[in-house]
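2 proteins. here.
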Amino acid sequence: MRMELAPSMLAADFGHLAEQLQAIEEAGADRLHFDVMDGMFVPSISFGMPVMTSIRPYTKLPFDVHLMIEDPDRYLEDFRDAGAYGITVHAEACTHLHRTITRIRELGMHPGVALNPATDPSVLRYVLPELDLVLVMSVNPGFGGQKFIPFSLEKIRTVRAMAEACGSTPDIEVDGGINAQNVQLLMDAGANVFVAGTSVFRGDIAANVQAFRTAFQIWNDKEK
């Protein structure tokens, strides 16, 4: 199972964005995570298609787009055109979740579903075979810099067991309060993609990314 780091653009310094993108890519990050917020599904408003379109020429990393918005179906094609590689929607925001997942794949992107901390993984029961990614929120969505919610570990284990039971192999991504110190616990629980904001962008980006890559290598060596 490949471990991947997805730095969260929500924590980037937009005054030096091109330089930070170059630093992230050169340091060995695997994808870029975009938290798109509409001020309705979550309290905050972040960024959307124009920001993604403007920075797409500056990096070859895949755009991992997390739509924290109401009725995401309205904008799926727009985000595809802005360079999205994968689109993750919230089960709570979709009236017809299976239809949304199907449309994401029809548009040539990788579909994912996000679970808020209090959302039961059972909502995935009938759609899990259709997913390329499940995002377990380990903080309540809407703000960066929050502390990791400990019961998220049990949810990760539950989602991984559900996937194995139905013969599915989605990436299990975790977002919220993640750093190079607690990522080992998340890997042990079954996660393999890690969204990190302040723990990547605060301080030396290259050193911060390397700390995650070292943790990944230690885990892989242990599992051999």
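next one coming up
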Amino acid sequence: MSTPEGPSSNDFQATEEILYEARKKIYARSVDGYFAKMRWAMVWFTQIIFYGLPWLRWDGRQAVLLDLTTRKFYFFGLILWPQDVIFLALLLIISAYGLFLFTAIAGRLFCGYACPQTVYSEIFMWIESKVEGDRLARIRLDNQPMNARKFARKSLKQAIWIAVALWTGFTFVGYFTAIHDLAGAVVTLSLSGWETFWILFYGFATYGNAGFMREQVCKYMCPYARFQSVMFDRDTLIVSYDETRGEPRGKHKRGVDPRSQGKGDCIDCSICVQVCPTGIDIRDGLQYMCIGCGACADACDQVMDKMGTPRGLIRYSSENAMENGWTKSQQWGHLVRPRVIIYSLILLVMVGIFVGGLAMRKPLKVNVMRDRRVLAREVGEGFLENVYQVQLMNASDTPRRISFSASGLPGLRIERPTEPVALAASTNLLRSLEVEAPDDTKSGIYKIRIEARTDGVQPIVVDTTTTFIVP
């Protein structure tokens, strides 16, 4: 009777190769074309905003500043406090549904054009190509033994990468610490521990992700690559290879109809693979690793121009359009469908709530709390007094003067403060408020209204309710 043999070392090795595919460095070939221009337009657009926004000034302060120390977020003339967290939640919901909508219409547009991973990978690859040369030059440089020329080029590339990464980390921290103060602290070597940590951490993340990991982030680390398929359908525009037109692939001469030789338009040059930043072959069909950047479409169009065949062998299209041979007008006509309508309606509602909430938001916030140390006390002139703590918050850049009034009981009056309370811009203040009622008021707990009113031609009025106790 034979005994079953256990798994061999070769079995474990095969399993390991399946679970953990060894990375092969991708040498993306540079390409020019419509989609490449669009990607670089987005690089310039996003980075001008990211690097430039912290340096803008607004009424003597930084225009956009998320000041965690004072718990105030400045957005030009708008100041948000912790109590305004609902607006942040709405903004995140709007961003999510915007992403869902764009994905349902045209796939991974965000990934291909606006994702920070894509943007910084483009910047770092551009630096690499300028220092080390084009694709073939980089391959030759990596394959040759270390020498003075190779060391100099590699060192120069790394130095530029590190400089860009550190400047990116510095800018990131500049959104949370006033960037002019941060720059002064860098010059005088007086950065705090946390500022130093976040500059180095964010810089290291930029350097590692854009300089080395690149497509690994998109393929294995990004969760969006995994759940995007639930937002796709057969009418979603994706970068697609026209198999009917391109197959069977094979080389043929320029000006010769490939059909006469039993071939398709694809000459199997593999340039579409060489330009892909994630190293996939779009001719194998839809793959979750595809970020929808359109580099393969640009490259293929250039090859088609050289071969004298029509463009669009690789193009943005939908599965239904490819299978049914739809024209562009038919293809665009199928973009409006139930899920797109639902996403659009939800997005419009969320944007309406967000804009409406900001428009109706009052820059003066008042919170009245009873002083629990004294329920009620007798004062002179035949009055009973209740004491409250009033928290005032001026959520604007304009100083305010606040006056108080009380209603809800006959003879109710504000004893202190008698003069308007000065409230500086973008500050909060806690003041004691003494409210009195005639001592012949019947015993009980009464609901009263406290009104706070600002001075000026267009006063801001905020009222709140509390209780007045008559023992």
